[in-house]
Write a structure and sequence with these properties.
- This protein has one domain.
- 61% of the residues lie in helices and 3% in strands.
- The strands form two sheets. Strands 1-2 form a two-stranded antiparallel sheet. The protein has a two-stranded antiparallel ribbon with strand order 3-4.
- It has 16 helices and four strands.
- About 6% of the residues have low confidence.
- It starts with a helix and ends in a 6-residue tail after the last helix.
- Strand 3 and strand 4 form a beta hairpin.
- The longest helix has 31 residues.
- Helix 4 runs parallel beside helix 15 and helix 15 packs antiparallel against helix 16.
- By secondary structure, the chain is mostly helical.
């Protein structure tokens, strides 16, 4: 009894010490702004000194009342030629520092969210290495601290991503309407999954112990995730398309280097691979059903019977479950690692717009590109939040699923939601990339 009390007290002290020390270190080093420090942003200044040539242009001929056509005199053509003022097309590049980032919208929200997520994820990770008695409750073994921090992190990031998605000028109205439609479709798909209307052999999840209200709540949350992640996924697809130079612009100032490009490829491919691991037809390929019996594949002379290879080679069921968890963890970490390249590609997208408008005609109209450069610069931290929210949700739900051993239902739901975030992210990104490949969508 005394040892259990001492163990629970030591666990609580360790969690409190870790939370306090991490918060102080992150605030002192300013890690959130340090992640974005040195990124290249662009400024497209207005024409503050208009010349006389800039005020000339096509003017409508106004006819006096009662004037006949015969009285109209031919207009004399001006001998002055319109010359494009190159000073109006100048764009300036500067590196972001702490003072620049502090003036951006949602900068403080990103910093506070980053602190909460890192502290919660660290406590969830620490709980897996502490001596915990499964017979004791969450308060006795100290699990209450990471559970509360993880739940607070999930709530904060969910509210913030909803607020960001509804920002008035950050996205088009059509994108908001499409997000709502996808949210409704995600809710309907969630109902078919949690109420087991879909074939039971399709997904490796079970919700039999959930009551009707619990299943409905999970379906609503699935719909919210599907709706709110559409715009971040579309930005992720554009960043991948631009960063890997799929448009073949061959401009080094727009595309990224080979290291960042490899990270973008690895992040996308690993996310798609992880999303397939809970789909039984794909997962069965990786499972050796005869792991305890006859091992190895069967041969007919020198020709391999391909059908007999399925189920006779691969991982055991327990190893597959561990492999799934590791893939979720690596997928979340990879998305955070690719945060800087994604944000840089978002800023370079405005640069591409300026370049396209500049070379679109002999006398370009740069008002649109000037507005786009301003908006991309103004909503920088908002986009950072959109890139940071999905991996944060994956890591938090994954951590909650590992410390909720006494609550099998919570463990299953948390793991399912983590997989659902990865699945929605992979589906939206792949669909948008396919539309870019077919030429239905394009960067402008």
């Amino acid at each position: 009894m005394t040892s259990s009390i001492f163990s629970s007290a030591s666990n609580l002290i360790l969690h409190a010490s870790l939370s306090l020390s991490l918060t102080l270190i992150l605030r002192f080093l300013k890690i959130p702004t340090l992640l974005l420090h040195g990124l290249n942003t662009y400024i497209h200044p207005d024409d503050v000194n208009p010349t006389s040539n800039s005020q000339q242009g096509v003017r409508a001929a106004i006819r006096r009342p009662g004037m006949l056509d015969s009285e109209l005199k031919p207009r004399k053509k001006s001998k002055e030629k319109f010359e494009f003022d190159e000073s109006k097309a100048q764009i300036f590049r500067l590196k972001l520092n702490d003072s620049h980032l502090q003036s951006r919208l949602y900068c403080n929200e990103f910093s506070r969210t980053f602190y909460v997520i890192i502290v919660a994820a660290s406590c969830l990770l620490l709980q897996n290495f502490l001596p915990v008695s499964k017979d004791s409750g969450v308060l006795a073994n100290g699990s209450i601290v990471p559970i509360l921090l993880g739940s607070a992190g999930v709530g904060k990031i969910s509210i913030l991503i909803a607020r960001v998605s509804l920002e008035r000028s950050a996205s088009r109205r059509s994108e908001k309407e499409l997000s709502f439609i996808l949210g409704v479709l995600g809710f309907l798909l969630g109902l078919t999954i949690v109420f087991q209307i879909a074939p039971y052999w399709l997904l490796d999840f079970g919700f039999g112990s959930l009551d009707g209200l619990g299943k409905f709540s999970v379906a609503v949350f699935m719909g919210c995730i599907a709706g709110f992640l559409y715009m971040p996924a579309s930005r992720n697809a554009r960043a991948f398309w631009l960063g890997t130079d799929q448009i073949r612009c061959n401009l080094s100032i727009i595309s990224c280097g080979w290291i960042a490009r490899m990270l973008l490829y690895a992040n996308y491919l690993f996310t798609v691979f992880t999303s397939l691991l809970w789909i039984n037809p794909f997962a069965d390929i990786l499972v050796n059903k005869n792991i305890d019996g006859r091992k190895g594949s069967q041969f007919n002379g020198t020709v391999i019977d391909a059908e007999k290879l399925v189920g006779n080679m691969g991982l055991s069921r327990s190893d597959l479950d561990k492999f799934r968890l590791w893939c979720l963890l690596v997928s979340g970490i990879l998305q955070i690692v690719t945060l800087r390249p994604n944000v840089q590609m978002f800023l370079n997208e405005a640069m591409l717009c300026w370049y396209q408008r500049l070379h679109a005609s002999k006398f370009p109209d740069l008002d649109y590109s000037r507005a786009k450069v301003f908006l991309h610069n103004h909503y920088l931290c908002l986009v950072v939040l959109q890139f940071f929210a999905p991996p944060a949700l994956v890591l938090l739900f994954l951590g909650l699923s590992q410390i909720a051993d006494n609550f099998g239902l919570v463990k299953e739901v948390a793991l399912f939601v983590a997989w659902w975030v990865v699945l929605v992210w992979a589906m939206f990104t792949s669909t948008i990339l396919a539309l870019y490949r077919r030429g239905i969508l394009y960067l402008s």
